[in-house]
Amino acid sequence: MTFIDALLNPSSVAVVGASSDAAKLTGRPIAYLQQHGYKGRIYPINPRYETIGDLTCYADAQALPEAPDLGLVLVGANRVIESVRQLAAVGTKAAIVLASGFGEAGEEGLRLQAELRAAAGSMRILGPNTIGLVNLTDRIMLTASGAMEMTDFRAGGIALLSQSGGLLGSLLSRGVGRGVGFSKLIATGNESDIEVADLLDAMADDPATRIVALYLETVRNVEKFRNAAARVIAAGKPIVAYKVGRSESGAQSAISHTGALAGADKVYDALFKQLGIIRAQTFADLLDIPAGLSQGRLLSGKRIAIVTSTGGAATIVADNVGLAGLEMPSPDPDTAEKLLALDLKEAVLDRNPIDVTLAGLRPDLFRSILKILSESATYDAIVVVVGSSSIGQPNVVARPLLESMDISNKPIIAYVSPEAPGIVQHLNTNGIPAYAAPESCAAALCALRPRGEADSSERRRPPAVDGADLPQGSLNEADAKRLYARFGFPVTREIEAATPADAAAKATAFEGSVVIKILSKEILHKSEVGGVEVGVATADVETVCEQMLSRIQVAAPGAKVDGFLIQELVRGGVEFILGYNRDPHLGPCVLLGAGGVTTELYQDVAMRLLPVTRQQVRDMVRELKCSALLEGFRGRPVADTEALIDAVLVFADMAVALDDRLEEAEINPVFVLPKGSGVRAGDALLVLR
């Protein structure tokens, strides 16, 4: 038996610190196990009792007749470590520790948590500071949560893994009220040992789980999490994640634009996109989206039919559906003809929303309308607005909806306009996702859009480039570009010059106007101190350089100047920013966005964690609003998108190869030239450790 088996489906449970008073927290777990039909053996441990109910009570773990699969530890923090040590000593495979006062309580708590983990030895620990877990599939309630007082639990296909214990009971009770069924609900607490990633990995093999919902505060081991998520999604099970802490500030950088653009929440966004995880934007989404996915149907497009008998409610739904980027086309001629042939007086059947008026109260007509729309090639999903007139006759709407499920495999969801929780529960229980908020309908429909194939590309192997000669600290632009070029990144044609006179002489090697830049590893934002001049005629180079030196002496006094950089003037390119950032929790990532001097103004960026594949980079480009400029926007030439993708991969390879030596890296702008002409690094920043 694995520790996951022992945790989720133990054949025997020792309850350490059990009480005979079911009203107390320490008395609840045994009562809940028995009330909800646990079929295994229960061993209470408490030296103060000989029996608890009809169960023999034992003084300690050593007195047990067998090694239990699982220990549920209810004693206070001062007695937990010894209790865990005893359970481990008799061969218990896993333990759930409810007590608080460990890692969440500061430095002393962290010390106790480390001691707890050591006491467990090879026995695995869930917690401490957890409310436990609920296995609804097998009716095993290993928790002290008061939510177990409810009796009408419905098993389903959604597994909830939460880093907050309170959310377990909250979401379970909401699910019960709405008719949404769960398979497993597990609170991981402080994650001294077992993490969300361990349980996520286990859900890939759990036959009862079809969807995984995650409530996350952090990801402790990003590689383990990535591997687990990949296994779950490869098993055809969607993952929906709600990540708290969205307002937290990201890793700040005093040097690069990338540091300002790459906030911590954006890195989590990148991780979820990279893994194919659906991000819940609101707490309500954490239940709404899995409920929509539980129907097991995805949209084949984005065209939605709204069927209603109440115009105002339909307008609200249509508004939210439109804001979500979905479409609501009118019925095509063939569909409209079939609808109009029903000859329903006062009904509006040739527009969308499709207002059926009183026909919505006639099951036979309502069934015919849904059948026509289900068979129509115009629509990819149907939203049915359930009006107030259905409160007294819920089956009038529910029965035709349920019968429509057999007509096609298109998603069908319901918006229940009145306050009618009974109808919501009835529909959800019978396989029709039903919502009491129009925003929830839109969020669910968006989550049903195709997520594409998982990227099975092999990880790239970065080139073996000898970096033994690389210096520490900031590099000036010329040195930075030489390092980029060493890895294969195309750079602009340029020449270094020591003095204004030297710059004037060397500028004659270029045809037409040039770009002049100050060269200094101590001045990395050159334009901010007057260290860049664009479109300089060859005859004016010396004068421009002298004026630039004068400005630098005022704007950056004391900065060591290495000379000047004379650079070809690139025309007609689309400007991007390409940067590297290392998130303190999730690790290194690459950023691509709208480049140039307005980078931070527009905040049009896409990120991915390293390493990346070609498909992931292509997805990054597509996410950007500025990517329209690559397609020949308003008469501009079509740009070399494939060369941009190549360049991002080269940049990412460099970051992976340099690893911990790389502190910051940025190219802004990257000029993407017309198709077939490639890209050029226009400016470069690089800081090494």
UniProtKB/TrEMBL annotation:
UniProt keyword list: ATP-binding, Ligase, Nucleotide-binding, Tricarboxylic acid cycle
Basic and acidic residues composition-biased segments: 453-463
Transmembrane segments: none
Pfam families: ATP-grasp_5, CoA_binding_2, Succ_CoA_lig
Region described as Disordered: 453-473
Domain CoA-binding: 7-102
Name of the featured protein: Acyl-CoA synthetase (NDP forming)
